[in-house]
Amino acid sequence: MRLTTKGRYAVTAMLDLALHAEDGPVSLADIAERQDISLSYLEQLFARLRKRELVSSTRGPGGGYRLGLEPRRIDVAGVITAVDERLDSTACGGQGNCHGDKRCLTHELWQDLSDSIYDYLSSISLQDLLDKQLAKKKSANKPQDLNLSIATHS
Questions:
Q1: CA 152, CA 132: separation in Å to the nearest integer?
Q2: 32 located within any domain
Q3: How far apart are the first and last CA of the chain?
Q4: Which residues face 56 on adjacent strands?
Q5: Contact in structure between 79 and 73 (CB atoms under 8 Å)
Q6: Does the pLDDT of residue 62 top 90, yes or no?
Q7: Residue 97 domain boundaries
Q8: What is the per-residue pLDDT for 21?
Q9: Residues 129 and 121: beta-carbon distance below 8 Å
Q10: Phi, psi at residue 125, to the nearest 5°?
Q11: What keywords appear on the UniProt entry (predicted)?
């Protein structure tokens, strides 16, 4: 299974949006600049995210995007599938025709892996990612305790 840039960028952009939600609507140009993602690519992704109501948009001056749901209600798997990314490890796209018109010997193994990946990504909310980023930022701004030891000689 290979997760393409479409899914990775969608999750990254959604996290950026969540991180800057307090500032009001967030422009795609700002996300594009901060995350080094093409603006036109983000526009395509956000059209799909808007269809799934994961984001909402406001037009005009001061407009931009907001999360369509609370971050705790948006899971990573939902973001990835909203942009038409497949979470599938099978060679046959889950169709069961990997060996001609039959299932290959290892079809169930790859299907189980796909299911496990989906379950894992479904268990991670945007809020979980947001909390991790905020904790990282907080610890980076916290002065480190210096452990000074004085050597004594007899």
A1: 42
A2: yes
A3: 64
A4: 66
A5: no
A6: no
A7: 5-126
A8: 92
A9: no
A10: -95, 165
A11: DNA-binding
